[in-house]
Amino acid sequence: MHWDPSRYAAFADDRARPFHDLVAQIAWPADGREAPRRVVDLGCGPGTLTATLAARWRSASVVGIDSSAEMLASARAGAATALPNLAFDLGTIEDWAPGPTDDVVVTNAALQWVPSHVVLLPGWLDAMPTGSWFAMQVPGNFGSPSHALMRSIAAEGPWAEALDGVLRADPVLDPAAYLSIMLDAGFEARAWETTYAQVLPGVDPVLEWVRGTGLRPALQALDAADPSGALAAAYTAEYSAALRSAYPATAHGTVYPFRRVFAVGRKA
Ligand SMILES: C[S@@+](CC[C@H](N)C(=O)[O-])C[C@H]1O[C@@H](n2cnc3c(N)ncnc32)[C@H](O)[C@@H]1O
C-alpha cells in the first residue's frame, strides 16, 4: 500500500492534536529515572511526531517503525533526524515484538491498519518490562458519514466490482475493550474517546482529508482496474457530492467531527 507523505501532511495540526493528547498521559520521569531507555513509535509515518518524543527524552533511544518506504524516506529526510537519539526502521507492526528495554511504546493512528492488533496486544503487553508505558490512539470514525458513504457508494455503481472487499469494516474496538486488555495484562490503565470537532478550510476538505488516509485503498484499486483514471474520477465525483451534503461548508469552513479512541497504561 503506497502512502503520499505530502498529502498526509495536509491538516497536520488536526492530525497531531490527538498524538499530543495521548503522550501527555505518559508520566515520565518515573521510578527515579529521568528518561525511558528505549522508546518505540509503531507506524510512525513521516516521523514528525516521533521526533517530539526524541526531543522530550534526549537520553532515550527513540525508534520509529513503519512499513511504508515512502513514509520512512520522508522521516529520514526530515530536519528532525538531526536528533542523535532518533532512528527509523522499515518493518511491519505484525512482525514487531517488544524488547526488554522498551520502556515506552506509542502508536498513534496506525493500529487501525493492522486488524490483528487486537490479537497481538496481549502478547506485546505481556512482554513489556515492569514500569513501562503503552499508549495507543486509533480513529473510531468508521461509522461516521465520511466512512459510511465511502462504503455505500463503493457498493453500487460501475466501480463496485473493482472495490469489492477493498474497504474495511470497523477494525477498532471501543475504549472499554482496550481497557480490559490492558488491565488483564497487569497495566494500570485508562481508556477514553474524544470527538474532535475539526474546522477544515478549502474546497471539499473532507475528501482531501480521507484522500490522505482511508480512501487510499479504494483509489489504488480503481487505478489498477482502470489506469485511465476515469473510474476513480467517477467514484470520487459521486462521493464528494455526498460528502458536501453530509458536511456542508459554513462561513467558518467545514466542520468534520472525528472520533478517536485512546488507551494508555503503565505496567505495574
Ligand atoms: C495515518 S499514518 C499515522 C502516522 C503517524 N503515527 C502519525 O500519527 O502521524 C499510519 C501509518 O501506519 C503505517 N502502517 C500501516 N500499516 C502498517 C503495518 N502493518 N506495519 C507498519 N506500519 C504500518 C503506514 O505506513 C502509515 O505511515
- Amino- and carboxy-terminal Cα gap: 38 Å
Counted by DSSP, the helix tally is: 11
Q: Please outline the major beta sheet.
A: 8 strands, mixed
**Quaternary structure classification:** single chain
Strand content: 15-25%
CATH architect. name? 3-Layer(aba) Sandwich
Shape field = globular
List the secondary-structure elements in sequence, H or E: HHEHEHEEHEHHHEHHHEE
Q: Output the CATH topology.
A: Rossmann fold
Helix share, percent: 25-40%
* Spatial extent as radius of gyration: 19 Å
Uncertain spans: none
Distinct small molecules bound, one entry per kind: S-adenosylmethionine
Mean pLDDT: 93
Total strands: 8
Going by helix content, strand content and strand pairing, the class is alpha/beta
Quickly name the level 1 CATH class: Alpha Beta
List the helices and strands and how they pair.
Elements: H1 5-9, H2 12-23, E1 38-42, H3 48-56, E2 61-66, H4 69-77, E3 86-90, E4 102-108, H5 117-127, E5 133-139, H6 145-155, H7 160-163, H8 175-184, E6 187-200, H9 205-211, H10 216-225, H11 230-246, E7 249-250, E8 253-267
Task: Write out key terms for the chains shown.
Rossmann fold; 268 residues; 8 strands; alpha/beta; globular
What does this structure look like?
The protein is of the alpha/beta class and 268 residues long. Strands 1, 2, 3, 4, 5, 6, 7 and 8 form an eight-stranded mixed sheet that branches. It has eleven helices and eight strands. It has a single domain, classed as Vaccinia Virus protein VP39 (Rossmann fold), CATH 3.40.50.
